Amino acid sequence: MPQPSTRQRDMITIAWLFLGFPLLLIGLFVFFPIGYSLFISFFDWNLVTNQRTFIGLANYTRLFSDSLFWKSTGNTILYTIGVVPIQTFLALFLAFVMNQKIRGRSFFRAAFYIPAITSSVVTSTLFIALFSKQGLINQLFGLENDWLTNPNTAMLTIMANNIWTTSGYFMVSFLAGLQSIPNSLYEAARIDGASTWQQFWKITVPMVRPVTYFVLVLGLIGCFQVFDQIFIMSAGGPVNSTTTLSYYVYVNGFKYFKLGYAAAAAIVLAVLIFSANQVQNRYFKPEVD
Amino acid sequence: MSKLTTCWRYVLVLSIVFTFSGCQSTDTKLTRLSGWSSNPVEEKLVAGVLADFHREKPAVNFKYEPIPGNYTEKIQLMLGTHTAPDVFYLRGETAPSYMRFNVLEPLNQYAADTTFRIDDFYPALLKSFQKGDTLYGVPKDFNPYVLFYNKAMFGEAGLTHPPQNWKELEAFSRRMTKDTNGDGKPDQYGLVLEPTIEMIMAFVYQNGGDFQKEDGTLGILDKNFLDALEYYVRLYRTGAATIPSDLSAKWNGECFGTKKCAMVISSGWLIPELRTNYNDVDWGVAELPVGRQKATIVFTNAYAMPKESIHKKDGWQIIDYLTSQDGLKSVVKQGLALPPRRSVAQNLGLYNDPVKRVFLQSAEFARTFQTTLPERWYEEASVALQMIYFDNKTPREAMEALNRQIESGILQ
Amino acid sequence: MATVEIRNLVKQYPGAAKAAIPNANLTIDDQSFVVLVGPSGCGKSTLLRMIAGLEEISGGELLIDGQRMNDLSPKDRDIAMVFQNYALYPHMSVYENMAFGLKLRKFSKAEIDNRVRAAADILDMKELLDRKPKAMSGGQRQRVAIGRAIVREPKVFLFDEPLSNLDAKLRVQMRVEIKRLHQRLKATMVYVTHDQVEAMTMGDKIVVLKAGVIQQADSPMNLYNNPANLFVAGFIGSPSMNFGRGTLVAQDKTLRFVNSALDFQIPASLADTLVGQVGKEIIFGFRPESIYDICFPSGKTLTEPQRITIDVTEPIGSETFLYFSLQDQVCCMRTLSDSQYQPNQTIDVGFDTERLYFFDPQTEQRIG
After folding, report:
1. Does the keyword section mention Nucleotide-binding (chain C) (predicted)?
2. Do chains C and A touch (3 or more CB pairs under 8 A)?
């Protein structure tokens, strides 16, 4: 292979300079913490005294014998199973509706998207008020439930909050996908005899499959890591019904000062997310057109 | 090398420098004092007191660095990364952990100085920061649970004095729980209680029980504990009292301020709220109604020094001044806190104020609520209470579950 | 029976100043092949889509087989449409694409299979049934689109510029196939195109549209030989008709057409019709094949010779086009391929007196 010319060498150097800085940042703030977390999960490390003792896999065995760990894992999985399908379908449905020519379309598009970009503190506070004993939800449906203090409904409230905020975000992704579907396909379907509902299922849904995959993957990863809303709305309660794995990690690390143990739980969470994603890839990935 | 590449190398170097300049460096020559800052008024006062200190002891070079925001998290991290301030505020709630981890400097030798007059402090406050006989923090202020009551609502119900004992507490509360608009549900309650372990412990102590006994074993299944807990829960379950979430309120102070409840167990932090947001409430304070004995819970904060500080002598000078009469008087005069020293309270005439007198007298029989259990015990206790209030378990069932959890060693 | 009748049809877009189609009247006979042709934006697709039911009818009536279709949805009109971009469902195989409409109408599996295979047979697509659209060429996709229409056995077939996306050679081939299909199925077909050659070769009846107005609806030869107005005359025929402005002058007992480049006598057959235009401005039109070099015998009666200078010669193989200017207008003349004309050569030419066209400059209508 001929030696690259000076100009080519310059280009390569410049390319590395451009890449270098972001690589440094990502390495420092993403890859290093992940690797380090794995490292400290084998230690007993007190956050306040800063003393470290190597204990091998003891953190992991302790983890698997804590019933709260299993409850958190169960809560996390339940939460994900509840939120991901509903939020995906709702986002697609909203996008489909928002793609039709109806009055006030721009207003509705903004209205559905704004929760997605509103701070989670704001939306959580809003939902606390909505779902309180004398809040709007109870008034509308004539109920008397205190949603967030009832172990059976607290998780539902948090799921509702997340579905409401994240659907808007994914609606935008679906809208983009929808707009790449040529209108003539729908016209051909109309002539073939499809009702609007049938058009939705037989044309829209199959054709946005790549976007659906994207939304499912992001949704899954996000749901496994849900934290903000739980921290603000329920602090993991009542009776640990809303403690998810990420909240369990936080509490163990920063309230009980057991950094190594928390890191172990975090590694378990990471493995869980990775496995779930592999399953998704195997069975749900659409072929590249 | 071409000019272009040279130029980009400068850019790269500059950006790296720029990034790392964001890192802080600590100046180790000064004695650093840190605390939380709740509001600008308080900050100004503290700055004023420190200026007085500087005039008195100009030899001490110090710097005041208040921490805005999440104080506890920041101090923990600073302790962990060996960058903690030389003097910092220590919360009564986190004191047991820090004492257990041995990160604080024992202060006995400094406090032994007779001019310091350690016995001038209310005993309950010192106890909060003692492990065995070693003192780790000097109390700076305190707040005990007292009973606030709405004088107007009492008058309406024909009651002339606040309840003196548990029987009266229940009876008065029932009398003032009314359905005013005839929809079958009460709109006004006599008492609002919070389902927190601290508030319950006031009653437990009055009944002669304890969460963790002197020998370290749990007392939560003892009769004295369970009876008190059952009394407390019964008030709520039989409709004599309510909890804030039932009224869609964020805390019990809101229920009292909006006149939905005639009585509330609270402390000094409620007073500014009443004065600013709910100033049409005609309120009074009284000591908590008495059980078998007088008892209440006190919340306190202290000044502490980290064990690895290199400015301990100077740090002590600061602590000494801040807890002396000179150091305390401006904050106390503003009504922002109660002094930890009995003599200061007397000298500044606080016992003459009807409201403050109740607080100060409560300090004499107050107790701190701490355990020597690993940190997770608090969350487990909260879960046990949630089981009672939100999952319909009986107090005995919940305490048995809590006992099992703690005994199982899962807290380690 | 599948006749289509359009009576006083109006298409007005809300907020538009003018109606896209102000008033259309048209009859499409059963089993006929009718072509809607015109330049872009003339409303031909709009008209087709109104027949399909994809556009709302603002006024007037649409009847298929005597039944009013205005308010019926596309699926109830018993029509099938072939789109310009084929509109095949990309995620379905060819078989599924063709079966889709039948499945929705709850046909039995056996019936669906029959029809699909029959259509595949007609279009010679049997091996393609399992393929997906993305694995096929443009021509194959177009055939699938047509197949999807065939299986429905509709009353009316609608084609919306189906061949525009194909290359020239394939277009010619498909034209023939569609015509053959029409003969075989004996169905009513309405075909939209902007290409007048395609229109001429395919239609039984051609409807020329401009700006939403039907200019003329007639057989191809009639449109060619007897255009009703200036637009139709210039639109139909390639190369198009040549035009020139001039005045009608009376001289002795004859009429003459005069302008700065031409001066010839109007034949007696036209003189009577044109007599009312004496002294007025008039537009003269002639087709490139109606002008002859007087040096060669043409076998036609020609006007007096006119002198022209050739600008450019364009030999296309089968013949040669000569371009010359008349009054700054470029005109075209067809001549035999072995003629040896040179640029800047002057020749004398005469017009075939039986193929002279005259138009009123204001109304653009044909007057002679």
Report:
1. yes
2. yes
